[in-house]
């Protein structure tokens, strides 16, 4: 048996650090493992007043509650998720002018994040800096073509409302990557998530409506009320599903004896974020979620993978891909070894930003002998039973693509 424990999910780690800052008192992270990204973000939050220290397998954090400090200068490049969290914390102060400096790519990312996820105006811009100020209103939670609020926008709306002492509400047909709402609820925010089927119907009425072809639309309503304080608690950050996807793909494609088992522990398996595993299983891979836990809000568990099954091509729609968009390169790689023609359709809102990634995947994965076409909605891949050794690859600075090619 080959057992691997996943590193904490990157985005959830950043979210948990922010909530630990907003707790007035101590928060403990159980079985915590540092990554370069999480350590860099924790260092930035020290400027906001977060204090932390390692205690064996635990990380102890001391937060300031709503009395956290707000630096006026952002000069350290971070992920888009981290940037949204930092800006949302800063949104409490509407009078201050904030400055973003650093590499051009970081400033461009900051400007894009402000436009997409906040109500803010850029007051000046030079070759080296970006100066902006928050407006006295919350960002608007618009829906994607699949009927969900983009997860970074949802993160911004809820955190801006929380630190500004106001409420927020949004209606969705479905949810994606909603660990942030789950985490807020776990830490004691006055937040509720409920399903509304419109007109109340009993089971018999629902069956009659279904038989008549009448669709009953369900809305998922998220409501946040003013919250004065968060609860000090112990917390466990679930494992990164993208990291687990790399092991799962490797275990499915590599030439190991049939009895070999790869056990991936603590991976996020919630349906709207851990969709890679059921999708790979749908392609006939021997993948099973053998345990599932929801103690800390987000579902995580153990995934077991066995090699040997011949993969089958599938047509994967936007709603399926939306649950595992970050793992798209691994699905493309699996399709190269699948029998038949696989179609990987990207959600409408993500097609423009994913175009260059698809083109680069096509260039590199054609070296395996697969036939690959790039079209407006994603990739069409006709696999082959024997994947060739492609030799040299170029991931174009995309870490997930690099891992898939490796």
Strands, helices and their partners?
Elements: E1 2-5, H1 10-22, E2 24-30, H2 36-46, E3 51-55, E4 58-64, E5 73-74, H3 80-90, E6 98-101, H4 104-117, E7 120-125, E8 129-134, H5 151-163, E9 168-172, H6 179-186, E10 191-196, H7 203-211, E11 219-224, E12 234-235, H8 241-253, E13 262-268, H9 276-282, E14 286-293, E15 300-306, E16 315-316, H10 318-321, H11 328-336, E17 341-345, H12 351-365, E18 371-375, E19 378-382, H13 399-405
Parallel strand pairs: 1-13, 2-12, 5-6, 16-17
Antiparallel strand pairs: 2-4, 3-4, 6-8, 7-8, 9-11, 10-11, 13-15, 14-15, 17-19, 18-19
Helix pairs in contact: 1-2, 1-3, 1-6, 3-4, 3-5, 8-11
Which key terms come to mind for this protein?
single chain, 406 residues, alpha+beta, 4-stranded mixed β-sheet, 13 helices, 33% helix, globular
């Amino acid at each position: 048996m080959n057992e691997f424990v996943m590193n904490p999910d990157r985005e959830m780690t950043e979210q948990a650090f922010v909530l630990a800052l907003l707790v007035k008192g101590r928060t403990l992270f159980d079985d915590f493992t540092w990554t370069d990204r999480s350590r860099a973000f924790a260092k930035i939050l020290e400027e906001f007043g977060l204090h932390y220290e390692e205690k064996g397998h635990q990380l102890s954090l001391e937060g300031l509650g709503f009395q956290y400090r707000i630096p006026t200068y952002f000069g350290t490049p971070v992920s888009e998720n981290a940037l949204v969290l930092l800006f949302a914390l800063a949104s409490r102060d509407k009078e201050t002018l904030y400055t973003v400096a650093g590499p051009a790519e970081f400033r461009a990312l900051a400007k894009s994040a402000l436009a997409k996820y906040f109500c803010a105006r850029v007051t000046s811009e030079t070759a080296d800096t970006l100066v902006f100020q928050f407006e006295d209103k919350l960002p608007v939670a618009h829906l994607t073509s699949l009927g969900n609020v983009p997860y970074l926008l949802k993160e911004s709306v809820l955190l801006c409302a929380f630190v500004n002492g106001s409420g927020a509400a949004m209606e969705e047909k479905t949810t994606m990557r909603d660990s942030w709402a789950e985490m807020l609820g776990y830490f004691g925010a006055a937040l509720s998530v409920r399903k509304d089927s419109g007109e109340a119907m009993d089971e018999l009425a629902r069956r009659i409506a279904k038989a008549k072809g009448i669709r009953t639309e369900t809305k998922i309503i998220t409501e946040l009320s003013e919250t004065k304080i968060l609860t000090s608690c112990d917390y466990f950050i679930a494992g990164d599903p993208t990291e687990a996807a790399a092991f799962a793909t490797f275990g499915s494609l590599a030439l190991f004896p049939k009895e070999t088992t790869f056990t991936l522990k603590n991976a996020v398996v919630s349906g709207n974020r851990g969709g890679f595993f059921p999708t790979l299983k749908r392609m006939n891979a021997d993948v099973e979620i053998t345990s599932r836990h929801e103690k800390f809000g987000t579902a995580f568990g153990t995934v077991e993978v066995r090699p040997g099954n011949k993969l089958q091509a599938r047509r994967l729609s936007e709603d399926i891909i939306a649950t595992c968009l970050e793992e798209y390169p691994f699905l493309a790689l699996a399709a190269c070894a699948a029998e038949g023609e696989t179609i990987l359709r990207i959600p409408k809102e993500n097609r423009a930003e994913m175009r260059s990634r698809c083109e680069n995947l096509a260039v590199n994965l054609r070296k395996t002998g697969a036939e690959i076409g790039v079209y407006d909605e994603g990739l069409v891949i006709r696999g082959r039973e024997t994947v060739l050794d492609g030799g040299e690859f170029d991931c174009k600075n995309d870490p997930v693509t690099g891992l898939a090619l490796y």
